[in-house]
Write a structure and sequence with these properties.
single chain, alpha+beta, FAD/NAD(P)-binding domain, Flavocytochrome C3, Chain A, domain 1, 2 domains, eight-stranded mixed β-sheet, seven-stranded mixed β-sheet, 15 helices, elongated, binds flavin-adenine dinucleotide
């Protein structure tokens, strides 16, 4: 009776395995399940040309560890006070030694990153020697690793339904098995039967401001530099069928970036890039017109060490980057030659060389005096004056006596002055449905929801500290595990 009630009158499509979301995790899952003999269908929310999620616009690195034992030690150290079950860590570590082998098996050419200082994110932690970061092909970035995954899916003839977001998992009311997906296609429900399993690989909640307020620590809003299509749909769908959640407060951020209404994702400001030196005065202030941090702090994916503990960078909102004419006229404030990020790689906004177009659009405000600028951005004028004066005095003695900043120690000189409102920004979230070592989505009591798997940043295993290239590495690991196990399920009819 209950089974009948939970089924649609008619399935629009019938396959063995439905993969929801076409990024690295979706690709690894679909390729593996297909190669194991399953009929696979991928559902993708974005239109063709904008699929690929964060993977498409990422730095393109993936982790391949050199020793599973060291990787277990390192991962446990990264988790710190937020441990992850050891059976999950073990399977991740063993599979992480095989990412290069798998990339080669689909026609790729793994190349190790050649910039060691950013290689191992936490070299002081035990086991960190296992970290090796790779990308596909001779150049890093420019979607090159993604293009390999996309090609491998296309070559296999795996069908992708674009502009077809999954909306609901169809569950057998009696057995709690997942039987298929209700997607939306051309504004209508589209029912897809999955006779073996459904795998959720539809990314995080980077574009869901309500989830950001509920789950991310201390930020009222945040914008991504990745895909605009990840809106936490996998979390909502998994919760509705009884999934437990984990790591919801962990994310690769925040940094500070410009977000304008005309564009869906954020612009990173060149003057804030760690290690980039530019001439001219630059500080960032909070709503109280005071500085709150070393603006050029080198964070570990958004985290800094405070009192011996890693914590997300403090970002009071709104924040304003205040600069002088020297910096304004020194060149574009935005990095015009990026290798990653949605805005440059997909939307392709061409920032003007002299920043004048952005001034005309109102993205940058200007005034002849600091007092006048304070009035325009709505902060207390005497306090902002005090902040700039104090900064200038610190520059004279070449010491930031407040926050110890060592880069761009230049005073404010010639007017006019400029302000850009900055927002907290992130690469990606890590939270989502909890998974076990078989990549099954589990309930709060740890039992699996039958025929439901997940992979990728949707419910990533990273609980606290994050090792760069770990996300795509994890996509490949749990994508392969999901794909194998989903294909091996007994069909339900
Ligand atoms: C600028 C940037 C640089 C980064 N650099 C690196 C790096 O070098 N190395 C690294 O490891 N990590 C990096 N990351 C993080 C990494 O890119 C992601 O964590 C990883 O790519 C996530 O892969 P995924 O397959 O889980 O999700 P995604 O690649 O985000 O794919 C999810 C897909 O699901 C689709 N989708 C969403 N909702 C639905 C729905 N309801 N139905 C159907 N489809 C849906 C989306 O459109 C998207 O195509 C970076 C992130 C950013 C933003």
């Amino acid at each position: 009776m209950e089974l009948k009630r939970s089924l649609p009158d008619k399935w629009d499509r019938e396959v063995d395995v439905v993969v929801v979301g076409f990024g690295a995790a979706g690709a690894a899952t679909a390729i593996t399940a297909h190669d194991a003999g399953a009929r696979v269908l991928m559902l993708e929310k974005a239109p063709k040309g904008q699929e690929g999620g964060n993977t498409r616009v990422a730095g393109q690195g993936y982790l391949n560890v050199s020793s599973a034992d060291e990787a277990i030690t390192y991962f446990n150290a990264l988790c710190g006070p937020y441990p992850v079950p050891q059976e999950v860590v073990r399977v991740w570590a063993h599979e992480s030694t095989k990412n290069n082998e798998w990339v080669r098996s689909i026609g790729g050419d793994p190349q190790e990153h050649q910039h060691p200082p950013v290689g191992v994110e936490f070299p002081e932690l035990p086991g960190s020697e296992c970290v090796h970061k790779f990308h596909n092909g001779p150049i890093v970035g420019f979607s090159e690793t993604w293009k390999l995954f996309e090609r491998a899916v296309t070559e296999r003839g795996i069908e992708v339904l674009y502009e077809t977001p999954a909306r609901e998992l169809i569950q057998n009311g009696a057995t709690r098995e997942i039987l298929g997906v209700r997607a939306e296609r051309e504004g209508k429900p589209h029912y897809v039967k999955a006779s073996r399993a459904v795998v959720l690989t539809c990314g995080g909640f980077e574009n869901n401001q309500e989830m950001i307020r509920n789950y991310l620590p201390g930020i009222p809003y945040c914008y991504t530099s990745g895909t605009p299509y990840n809106e936490g749909d996998g979390i909502t769908m998994a919760m509705a069928v009884g999934a437990d959640l984990w790591h919801m407060n962990n994310f690769a951020g925040p940094s500070m970036a410009l977000k304008v209404p005309e564009y869906r994702t954020s612009f990173s400001m060149i003057s804030l890039h760690f290690s980039r030196e530019s001439p001219g005065g630059m500080v960032v202030v909070g709503p109280d017109a005071r500085r709150f941090a070393d603006e050029k702090h080198h964070t570990s994916h958004g985290k800094i060490k405070v009192s011996g503990r890693w914590t997300p960078l403090f970002t009071p909102c709104p924040m304003f980057m205040i600069i002088d004419q020297t910096l304004f006229s020194s060149g574009p404030l935005y990095n015009k030659e990026p290798r990653s990020g949605w805005n440059p790689m997909v939307d392709g906004y061409d920032w003007s060389d002299d920043n004048r177009a952005e001034l005309a659009k109102g993205w940058i405000k200007t005034a002849g005096t600091i007092t006048e600028l304070a009035g325009i951005i709505g902060v207390d004028a005497p306090t902002l004056e005090g902040t700039i004066n104090r900064w200038n005095e610190d520059c004279l003695v070449e010491e930031d006596r407040q926050f110890g900043r060592t880069l761009m120690l230049s005073p404010f000189t010639d007017p006019p002055y400029y302000a850009l409102e900055l927002s907290p920004s992130m690469l990606n979230t890590q939270g989502g449905p909890r998974r076990n070592e078989k990549s099954q989505v589990v309930r709060p009591d740890g039992t699996p929801i039958p025929r439901l798997y997940s992979a990728g940043e949707l419910g990533s295993i990273y609980s606290y500290l994050y090792q760069g290239t770990g996300n795509i590495g994890e996509c490949l690991v749990f994508g392969r595990i999901s794909g194998r196990n989903a294909a091996a399920e007994q069909a339900w009819d």
